[in-house]
Specification:
Elements (H helix, E strand, L loop, with lengths): L3 H14 L5 E6 L11 H6 L6 E7 L2 E6 L3 E6 L5 E5 L10 E7 L4 E5 L6 E6 L3 H4 L1 H4 L12 H9 L5 H5 L10 H11 L12 H20 L41 E6 L2 E6 L5
The chain binds zinc ion.
């Protein structure tokens, strides 16, 4: 499932590729990907003739601002992809559910084999009403400047294990299973350390690791794993998985201390960490 860095890569690609383009036609295959609308026509009518004026990200949601008061909201879900096609003749991927053609040429296509993702058009002011989780979204580490002291105060207010707290979308936006493991390895902290038990030095390490891990992941175009479908706007997989230190590296040597990386099942999901140097 794409996390904050992957969605941010797609946002930056969209900003370069589709801002300033005007929607000529919209093709929709079935209702699954546009299920919030009553029918296809209603979705198409709110897009055709409008220009994309900017691209924002809120957590893992992409907001393509349109001229006027509307915004096209995109959530990639588990397996969704947004792909730029240079022309309508570019081969169409299987499971392409929405095709937006621009007056300037080129297309933006939404591909989603498992159809957990979605697209919908709504008024800019009612996005949070449509997606209640956005109304309670926590701090976005890439968007909001925050000092490590402030981060430490937020951690101290809670009495929760670190991994579920990092993944709590009401606490921080966009961090999931991969990046929480990588951030905690970088900080040298176990997944089950209590958030209010950290020393000032540990808070500083956790904060630095969070910022560096997420920024490096964006720099390396996100993580694409063997069983997942994340690619950028040009259909290219990310490269950050090559730099993962513990995630999906069970049985390998920890890059820091050479002890073996272990995997533990925590509430139905795998957690990877080094039991020697993460304390
Ligand atoms: Zn280690």
């Amino acid at each position: 499932m794409p996390e904050l860095p992957e969605v941010e890569v797609v946002r930056r690609d969209l900003e370069r590729e589709v801002v300033g383009k005007k929607v000529k036609t919209v093709d929709v295959d079935g209702m699954r990907s546009v299920r919030r609308h009553h029918n296809r026509k209603q979705f198409q009518q709110r897009l055709v003739g409008h220009k994309i004026t900017g691209v924002e990200r809120r957590g893992k949601y992409l907001l393509l601002k349109l001229d006027g008061d509307d915004v096209l909201v995109v959530h990639l879900g588990m397996s969704g992809q947004l792909l730029r096609a240079k022309t309508a003749r570019d081969p169409m991927a299987k499971h392409t559910h929405v095709v937006i053609t621009f007056t300037q040429g080129g297309q933006l296509r939404f591909v989603d084999p498992r159809t957990f993702g979605e697209m919908f058009v709504t008024e800019r002011d009612s996005v949070a009403e449509q997606v209640p989780e956005l109304a309670h979204l926590g701090i976005d580490p890439l968007e909001t400047a925050m000092s490590w002291e402030h981060f430490g105060a937020l951690l101290a207010q809670r009495h929760t294990k670190l991994k579920p707290l990092l993944m709590d979308q009401k606490f921080l936006a966009g961090i999931g299973n991969i990046y929480s493991d990588e951030i905690l390895w970088g900080a040298g902290l176990r997944w089950d350390r209590m958030s209010d038990s950290l020393t000032a030095q540990e808070v500083r390490r956790l904060y630095r690791s969070m910022m560096e891990t997420l920024q490096d992941a964006v720099k390396h175009r996100g993580s694409s794993l063997a069983d997942e479908q994340y690619v950028d706007l040009f259909g290219k997989p990310g490269e950050f998985q090559q730099f993962h230190n513990v995630y999906a590296r069970e049985g390998e040597a920890c890059p820091r201390c050479r002890h073996v990386v272990v995997r533990e099942r925590v509430s139905g999901r795998s957690t990877f960490y080094c039991s020697a140097c993460q304390v």
